[in-house]
Amino acid sequence: MSDMTTKVSGSNELVEDKLSFGKIFVYGTGNFASQLSWTMVSTYLTLFYTNVFGLATGSIAILFLVAKIWDGIFDPILGGIMERTHTRFGRFRPFMLIGAPLLVVFTVLTFTVPGFGSTEKLVYAYITYIGLSMSYSMVNVPYLALPAVMTRDSKTTNRLFAAQMLGMCIGMIALNYFTLPLINYLGHGVEKSGYQLTAAIYAVVSLPIFLLVFLTSREKVEIKKEDTIPAKEALKIIAKNRPLISTTIYTIISMVGMFGRLGVAVFFYIYVVKRMDLITLFMMMQTIVGMFVMPFAPRFIEKFGKKNTCIIAMIIQAIGMLMIFFGNPANIPLLIISHIVYGLGYISGPCGSGMTVDSINYADVELGGRADGTSFAIQVLATKFATAIGQALGVFLLGVFGYVAGPPGAISASVAQGINITANLFPAACFLLAIVPLFWYNLSDKKMEEIHAKIASRNVQA
Fold first, then answer.
1. Contact assessment for residue 233 and residue 16, using Cβ atoms and an 8 Å cutoff
2. Can you give the residue range of the structural domain that contains 26?
3. What are the pLDDT digits (tens) for 134-154?
4. Is residue 462 in some structural domain?
5. Residues contacting 283, CB < 8 A, separation 6+
6. Which of 219, 225, 404, 424 pairs with 97 at a CA distance of 20 to 30 A?
7. Is 4 helix (H, G, I), strand (E, B) or coil?
């Protein structure tokens, strides 16, 4: 199927087009490539830092928080720079071209154990982790922003975000399926070698995928230099953008639950379930379900709306977590069913980015300016901030409950219960709490139809 594009002149033009299945598919693979880095970090970095690298849990928690403070400075600046970049490749894609090689290099360096003393190793961890986080921003801020400039057709935008989330699910499944076996196989019993070589393989796979996304995801909605709003004005518009703020708060809270669980779930399977042979299955289960529900997400969203889809998903995911928390960890069928329930909540995957696009269009019409680069930078910052908060809180809670690295049978019943609380009850609370800011999101489908009509009318007049 060929692309059908309507070209118009002038700034902030409404370009409604249908992208081919191939281009939507290739765009989705970009998130598959991202997971080979970021899911590796969010799922295994805490375990790597404690059991292989040799950092104390307190040092890890501080590292994650310090890195996110720097992200709070770097990411909005990066978004502002992207908004003011005008090249023949567009505003966003050039940063992917620069950031992708850096991302794969820093992924390998982050999972490398240097032959330094304890202080030098901690400094090395700060440099590599912060470098990884900055590289991730350089790839994913423009990547997330691309659907807003590849098309202005809302259904096509939903399909792009659904493809992105499907790529995420497949990437998470592949990573969780292959990572531990690869670490054991490549390391020949030496974990530090296994982690480094596994990260290197993922880097080799991900780089050409990023380059393919760069080549095929063309920016068709252009903003002229003279229509670019000043950075100070962009921040004022964002500060007044109620839908964007509510979306950001929702993203942070829900992602704290999701990534907080990812960082400590493996501890639950090792020390509470005590089934090392099922770790890969449980780490993959909810994502496998998500992979099957994601193709239905655009239609589900069209029927119930983005806001209601998020609320339904948060309730479903909380129920899944509570089933695990209150269930018998030795009851494997119940655990599988619980993970399936949790995975059904992935139906809301495209909603966060979709609500961000709606918030940008709302600001364009109602607040007098379009700050798409900075808005998506804030969304990526929210995700990274949530990842760090989730990981830091997870590690902190493990320490509070008395966890000390050792064999599965070495922990007490109280520590096992603490791990259960950290891995399951805490995320459930986050998912339910994430519903609260959604009540402040006031962009209904009817409202967005009015906004799109105003944009169309303005562009016709131009």
1. no
2. 21-220+227-457
3. 998 898 888 888 887 887 777
4. no
5. 43, 176, 265, 266, 269
6. 225
7. strand
